[in-house]
Structure formats: structure tokens, C-alpha cells
Structures
1.
Amino acid sequence: MARLKIATFNINGVRARQDALLAWLQREQPDVACLQELKAPDEAFPQRAVEALGYGAIWHGQKSWNGVAILARGAQPEERRRGLPGDPDPSQSRYLEADVNGLRVACLYLPNGNPWPGPKFDYKLAWFAQLHRHAARLLKDGVPTVLCGDFNVVPTDELDIYDPKSWRTDALLQPESREAYFALLEQGWTDSIRQVHGDAKIFTFWDYFRRHWERDAGLRIDHLLLSPQLAPMLRDAGVDRWVRGQPGASDHAPTWVLLDSAGGAKPKRSASTKAPTELATATKTGAKRSSASTNAARKQAGTSPAAAAKRVVPGSVSGKTAAKKSPVRKTATTKTAKKAPRAGAAVAKTTAAGARRSGSPKKP
């Protein structure tokens, strides 16, 4: 490969925003696009319209809620997994994994977790725990991988939200949510936006209420994490904000990375504030300190992480009531398109070379 642009976009209803999706694909032409919140059953996915723009696609739909898809320009994604292994509630369509152009692409829609505290937040933590296990296996496989989607986590107060004061009781900012996110980075994944933009405030989501978009009162909850093989190739990353400004838009904007076999870009950091790694450490430390009082309240409410693991959804992290894995269902996916020239081989070669060089009321 010379360059690949990989994007994630919470479309918030693919039927209602099909025109917006097609306009974005036509203008930005990402090589791989991961979609979340399709809010449509499999048969309602706009396969023909997507194919007309030159994209092959696989999708995992669900009526009214959730739903994820992976699109590839000039290629057909080769599905590897439908559903997160050990998902505490496999009836929810939240995870899809495929091989595309020599990369492994994992598209996820992590549970929102509101209201906090409560069963939905317990489900969020249980789902996160299963994601940790599977993400570790992906790294162990050694295949260049992008883990991306709507994580429903605001990593820091300082850089990833306009003002945290009115969001203190939201599941997106809870210490446990943040600790789970940073635990993924500690496995070896790279937060692409933070790596490129350093301590710049970047948002990917603007709530529909109280003129959040007009005031640029946003949050960063859509993330693209890169495996160690891909991190040296990170050339650029950004957000297609123009999409959020369109009439009837999703409350999210597409977020993307540009990978280049020629090598990555130097991170853009300002000397006025902490570097991202220092900020992450400080945030995690603060999260652990504040979690003591938080956990006390949650324990009183009977929603501590330990209690959640024991009593919430079937098949939670305790493993005592492992849920039955949902069978792999085949959707009416697009006919296998002609594969693009073997970018996969190029990715494998350039990955090795790069490695040597660098050594909220809307969601259920």
C-alpha cells in the first residue's frame, strides 16, 4: 500500500441518513469505513447504493438499535468475526471484524452505560472486560489491526470534552470507563488522534440538545486505536466536522486516520501543557483517586464492579454463567467484488519495515 484512509462514523440511523452517508463517502473516499448505530435490520442496509459508489460491505444489523458495518473501497471485506467473543448480551449487534487490504479491521459500538449507576453501566463494564480479552488476542496474533468505533468514553477532562461539569454523572466520564479505556492503551494500542494532535482539544460528538454543535460544545468518544505494527505508519488523523454541520446530521462526525507506508508524521505537541502520555498518567491517577468515593456510592447502590460481574448480564466477566455465543449469521452481503491489487502483501512488507524503523439520552 502507499496510503490508506480508515474512518469510523456513528451514522445514528443508516436509513434516516443514507444520503449523508453517501455524500460523505463520495467526497472523502475513505478506503475503509466502519459504521455504528445502523439502527436497522440486515435487510434494510443500503447495499446497492453503497455498491454503486464502489464499496464492498458487510454488516451486522439490529432493528431500532445498535448495528455495525465495515465498508471497503474497491474490495470486499472478508468477515472474520460477528459479535464480540463472550459478549454478555449477544443479542445486541455491537462488534464486527474483517480483513481488508491486508489489515484486520475491528468495528465496535461499545455500550453507552447510562443511566449511571445501574444495570446498563454494569453491562458496559462487562462488555469492556470482554473487549480487553479479545484485544489482547488480536495483538498476540501479530496482524496489523485497527480497533475503532464509538467507545462511549471521554478519556480526559482536559482535552476531550468542552466542559466536564455538567457530565459528572454521565457514564462516559466515570473513572471505571476511563480506566478501561486506558487499559487498552497499556496493552500496546496507540490512540491515533492523540498521537497526531498532542494536547489539542478534539471533538467527535456534539449532542443535539442545548445547541452543542453551534457552541462547539463537543466530546471525543470515537477512537481509532492502532496495533504496534501500524503505529509507525500513522501519517495523519482528523475529524470530518463538515458532516456534523449538515441539515439533519448525525450527532457524531466521521473520524479518520491516514496510514502511509513511507512512515508517520511527528506528533503535534504544545509546550504549554502536558504531553499526552503524561496527561494520560495524571488522568488515570486522578481517576483511581476519585473512584474510591465513586465505588463507595456504587457499593451502597449494589452496583460495584464485583457485584456487576456476579449478578448482571449472563456470561459476564465472572465466567460462572458464560453466555452462549451467538451463532455466526450470514447476511445478504454484497457479491464478492473483484479484489483490489494485493495491497495486503504491501502492508505486510511495509509493516515489518515500519516496525524496524521505529523499533446522552440517545443510546440504549
2.
Amino acid sequence: MTSTTGPRGWALAEHRRETLVERAAAGAVLVLPVGAIEQHGPHLPVWTDALIATHVAERAAAALDGTPDVLVAPTFSFGSSDHHLPFGGTLSMRTRTLMDALTDLGRSAVDSGFRRLYLLNGHGGNDEIVQLVARDLALQLPVHAGCSSWWKLVEKQVRGSGLAAAASRIPGHAGAFESAVMQTLRPDLVGDFPAEQPEPESKRQLSRLEMHQAWIRADGYTDSPGSLSAADGAAILRIAVDAVATEIRRFCALADQNSLPTEETRTRD
């Protein structure tokens, strides 16, 4: 049976071009979730990162309820995941290819009239890449661009909370943190947790240190996947949705204070 409820206000893909052109011209911010399709240990589905980023972006946009105006694009579900290729179940893009693809999407958004773009990332391997894309878009085009990996916006609050997740590695990979969130979002897709449950370890280092084949030795997941519950995951998601909504609101307030050059000014310059 066909729904007659019409497009959801925040869902870019459900609107017609006239509506999108009008909202872009009026200052709507376009949020692009970015994820990955990659192995997540023996217990989580390969679309974990894309699924979480999508959920957080859409719920944050719904919570903002038009103030500011937010449109969420369909998730860019493929990321930089070459380090997971040895396990199988992974579809990866080269770093340069991913940068080019995201930059092209940003350029097309600007050509379509958007002047505010926010990349919400869900995959650790994309973190530096989305930062570079946002930086270069704002340098090269008349657009205010922002980005973050969703877990960076929640870490301080989770660490300071009474949640069991406060002691977890954030975000880890298919460990306690992500496994708890997936138990909330799609428990039907979560398999049995592996018997090997390594303890959380800090990734805070003075240098970035990458050990050859480290992911193979760790069997493709970090810390202890079964140590947090679905209730912990639900609490993490509530914090995430609120934090992302707050950050988008802050981004738009800052954009309001920084005017962009007009077409006439750019032509004259």
C-alpha cells in the first residue's frame, strides 16, 4: 500500500527540485552522512558504520524540527577501509578516490544552491579524510563546511556520565561501544559475541603508530564486544542525537555571523 503522508521534512531524497532549490537559497544546511561497508568482527554486520551515522543524522535533523532547516542526504555508505580487506566482506575506496568523491558531492551541492554543508562521519578510517574535504571545500568554494565523526561529539559527555560505556574504548571497532549501539538499532543483525574479549586500551599516543598486520592479530575487532548492554547503546544514541543536533545548531549560528560573497562580488574579484 502506498503511503500518502508525503515527504519527511529533513529527507532530501524525498523532495522535488523546486523545494530543494528554495530551501537551499534560504540557508538550509545539507548534512551528508558518511559510512563504510566493512567487516565488523564475527558478530556485527558490515554496514554498521553507515547505519549508525544515518540514524544519528536523521534523528538529529528530526529533533531540530526546522530550526535550523536541515536536509539529510542519502548516506554515502562506502569509505576508506583497505585495512579490513584481508577479512573479506569489505568494499573499500582508495583514500584519494574517497576524497574526490566527497569533494564532487560537495561541489554539486554548491552548484545546486547549498551554502552550508556538514559531513557526519561514522567510520574511523574516514575521519581525517572528511576533515580535509570540508577544509578544501570552504577554501575553494562559496560554502560554509563542517564535519565531525559522531563519536567525537559524544565522548566527553559519555566519559563524564555514570554509564558503563564511560570506561569503554570510544569508538573502538566492533567492540563494546559499537556493539551496544547495534544491539539497540538492529539486534536482529547482531551475532554471538566472540569468546575472546580483550580489555579496552587507550589509543591516545604522541604519534600515530601503525603496526603492520595489527588488525589481523586482533581478529578485526577491539576491546570487549559483549561488555555493554542494549540499554547502554540506547543511552549512547540519545546522547549522540542531542550532541549532533547541538553541533549543527552551533554550525548554523556561526554561518549566520559570516556572510558569503555574492555572485556579483565573486565575478568582480
3.
Amino acid sequence: MLTVSSDIDVLARFGRALADPIRCRVLLSLRQAPAYPADLADQLGISRTRLSNHLACLRDCGLVVTVPDGRRTRYELADERLGHALDNLRAAVVAVEADKTCPDADTSGCC
């Protein structure tokens, strides 16, 4: 059983990862299927350098992992339950109050 401190640390790490819209988009994309960085950058319409920084953050937070694939590296969610958690969290927030926005939505921070 996790201690209260561990529970808080885990949720804070997840929250920091979700605090940035690009990282949210990356997680939602990887929820659909694993992807290569170049493909993700094209899909999200951002530079590979910018994406690399976000992938490093998500990797450091323990939410995504790299999978060697020949000379390339593929990214995927560290655990399939993360995809379910994202779906459940989104559904819960929308169910509570879909018309609310976070006043600090433009503030980003990394893990």
C-alpha cells in the first residue's frame, strides 16, 4: 500500500505532465498508438526539438517509455492503464463542469 506522501508525489508528477497542452496532446496521441518522434512532431505540428523536450519530460515523469526498433526509437505509454486514466480523467472533468477553464492554462512546467 502506498503512503500518503507517495500518493501525493505520484499525482503531482501526473499533474505536472498534464500541465502543458503539448504534453497532453502527446499523451493523447500515444494513447491511440505508439509513435516515432518525427511522426509525432508532424502530427502535432511542432518542431522535433520542441517535441524532444516534452518527450524527455514525459519520460522523466515515468509516463512514456522508449522502445528500440532497429535504428529508430518508438515512444509509447509506460502502461496501458495510463490511457484509461486519461480517458477517465477527461470524462470526469467534463461531467463535473465542461464550461470551466483553468485561469493558469497558459502556465507550463516540467517534471
